[in-house]
């Protein structure tokens, strides 16, 4: 069997791959799967050119450099093939815009001072990670929250009048103004979720539409695209004498 990354093929039977996967589940809902391959390549003398110790060491060094150069390229296909050329394992590249991160390599600490390294063998170890969406993320929310703040009972407002001899309570108006503020934030997986912004809970003259606030935040870079697009909203309401009663929207 042999390992291949992009267009670079490793020496036959030189590579061992251990793989694992874990779900990424914001709010308990699996949206991505992160795959990890721990790869160890042990090249031997038959894998390099040279008959003298110096030539063999130079061959190992050239192989080391070639592997590092090949693995430094992001988002290439990582595969394990049988000797007959049948692909049995793969981490495919991730296209832009789907919400994922293509294969990316992190080299581990590799031995250099060992007497066998660059003489009878060369050991190179690295980890490849890739993240793939498990659902269509185009209209998927990572999070949603809304708060409803209610203030006032509508009762007449009181005012304390301070006199020379005594103080007195006065009610200059028959009713007080009740207010409400509806605000929240929605975060889309790979697109800004304007479709998830709820409508105002109250309309007409109760809705102070001139004070509406919509805030859009830029996405965050992740692999081959952007993710976590946030949009926030705030609506204000007011009316005299009648308190507002309601509940915020729940997770959509």
Q: How does this model look, in words?
A:
This protein is mainly beta. The chain has two domains: 2-133; 141-240, no CATH class. The protein is 8% helix and 44% strand. It has a four-stranded antiparallel sheet, covered by helices on one side. The longest helix is centred in the first third of the chain and has 19 residues, at 53-71. It starts with a strand and ends in a 12-residue tail after the last strand. The mean pLDDT is 90.
Write the layout of secondary structure elements.
Elements: E1 2-5, E2 8-9, E3 15-24, E4 32-44, H1 53-71, E5 78-81, E6 87-91, E7 101-107, E8 121-133, E9 141-151, E10 159-162, E11 167-170, E12 177-188, E13 213-216, E14 220-222, E15 225-227, E16 229-240
Antiparallel strand pairs: 1-2, 1-5, 3-4, 4-8, 5-6, 7-8, 9-12, 10-11, 12-16, 13-16, 14-15
